[in-house]
Design goal:
By secondary structure, this protein is of the alpha/beta class. The chain is 31% helix and 19% strand.
Length: 450
């Protein structure tokens, strides 16, 4: 089993306090905060994950003792944070004395710097818990409170979007893409799984672009490096979910070529073989007017490739009918695409001229009745495609996550297969168990003949 899945051990901080009673009270504040956040503390270096040395810098003997102690801690442990009066002393040339003498220390602060010390600890040794969040009734620790049912939760991995699609005003409201640190995302995911979440729904404005804004920089999680990149994040989430028997579902995945690399994880069951891909249209000219990214004219080829890698893949998408200047020929191209791509789950909006959307200024705005008529025609085709795809499931035995089970399922219940995202896709009606000893329980997966 990989390190990602290893149960976290309590991190241990070695602590040495030198100098006067004023320095001692600083040490007490730091030790109190360390203990409140769940760190184990020790007066020795043995077995410590890092060491804090609170120094004195008043007289020469005290300076020597402090520098010697830092050197000893580095020799025995290697990871040392320095605080206290010596940390504020300058050396030759105006640089920091401690860093000149011991350049390998992790951080140096002056006296009365509890928060700066804790920031350095958090950076090098993630805290076990937050003393405030852990006291929130009904919360998931670091993940906080959730408004979803307790057995599934949304995990936002980034905010904003770098695209400027002409029908969309999200960037004007939420700004450009800002990816969350990968360690924070994985920390929240683990808190959710530990709290009983059985389905994690990964969301953002553009999940495929995760990490683009930080150039896919390497973060850290449980002491190991993890790139801030969709593939690495999804792989780590799949590994985290496995021991809990939980699902990981991906939403808002733009069809970039890099998505191909995620499909093997779906084929092997690491994450659900489900992709929510906002395609919006199929005709190259409409896509250009929409300013859509990701070479949309190749989407048919891309979806076929995904299904070669993972035959069980379910694709859901949303589309816009009646976009400004959309011709009947362009609309027919969209209907043909939905049939040929065999989109399992499709939704469609009649174009809406939202205030602030650049597409409102395009020539050829269609009458509202034409937009609505095309949306209705689209949904009729999408429904037929979906029925055909669902018919292939008849008689199959599938795992179903139970969403509702009154009286422990004695009157049956409702659930969802891997092909069904909550409140978006379909549901599976569950019959009452044939044996009285069998029950249905919300948040528990049940194998069911469809």
């Amino acid at each position: 089993m990989s390190d990602v899945l290893s149960p976290p051990k309590t991190p241990k901080v070695g602590f040495v306090s030198l100098g006067c009673p004023k320095a001692l009270t600083d040490s007490e504040l730091i030790l109190t905060q360390l203990s409140a956040e769940g760190y184990q503390t020790s007066k020795t270096f043995e077995g410590a994950d890092l060491v804090i040395v609170n120094t004195c810098g008043f007289i020469d003997d005290a300076v020597k003792e402090s520098l010697d102690t830092i050197g000893e801690a580095l020799a025995e442990n290697g990871k040392v944070i320095v605080t206290g009066c010596l940390g504020a002393r300058t050396g030759s040339g105006g640089g920091n004395l401690v860093q000149q003498m011991h350049p390998s220390v992790l951080a140096v602060t002056g006296p009365h710097a509890t928060q700066e010390v804790m920031d350095a600890v958090h950076l090098n040794l993630p805290r076990p818990h937050d003393p405030f969040l852990d006291l929130v009734p009904g919360g998931f620790g670091e993940a906080g409170l959730k408004l979803t049912p307790r057995h599934y939760a949304y995990l936002k991995i980034s905010e904003g979007c770098n695209h400027r699609c002409t029908f969309c005003i999200i960037p004007s409201m939420r700004g450009d893409l800002v990816s969350r640190p990968v360690g924070d995302v994985l920390k929240e995911a683990r808190a959710l799984f530990e709290g009983g979440v059985k389905e994690l729904l990964v969301i953002s404005q553009d999940t495929s672009a995760y990490g683009v804004d930080v150039k896919y920089r390497t973060g850290f999680w449980d002491g190991r490096p993890v790139k801030t990149r969709m593939l690495d994040l999804v792989q780590a989430l799949g590994e985290l979910a496995e021991p809990y028997g939980a699902w990981v579902r991906l939403h808002y995945v733009y069809p970039y070529p890099s998505v191909d690399d995620v499909l093997p994880l779906m084929a092997t069951g690491k994450v659900l073989p489900y992709l929510d891909v906002p395609l919006q249209h199929s005709h190259p000219d409409v896509l250009r007017r929409m300013k859509r990214p990701a070479s949309g004219e190749r989407n048919l080829e891309r979806i076929a490739r995904w299904r070669e890698i993972c035959p069980e893949l379910v694709v859901r998408s949303t589309f816009i009918a009646g976009f400004p200047a959309e011709t009947e020929e362009e609309f027919q191209h969209l209907l043909d695409f939905v049939r040929e791509a065999q989109i399992d789950r499709a939704g469609c909006f009649a174009y809406s001229d939202i205030d602030g959307a650049a597409a409102n200024d395009l020539p050829g705005m269609l009458p509202q009745e034409v937009r609505e008529e095309r949306r209705a025609r689209f949904m009729a085709v999408a429904e037929q495609v979906s029925i055909w795809r669902l018919q292939r499931r008849v008689g199959a035995t599938m795992q179903v996550l139970v969403d509702s089970a009154p009286a422990l399922g004695r009157r049956g219940g409702m659930g969802r297969s891997y092909a069904d995202a909550p409140e978006i896709d379909g549901t599976v009606r569950l019959l009452p168990p044939q044996k009285a000893s069998k029950t249905l329980k919300v948040g528990v997966a049940s194998r069911t003949i469809i």
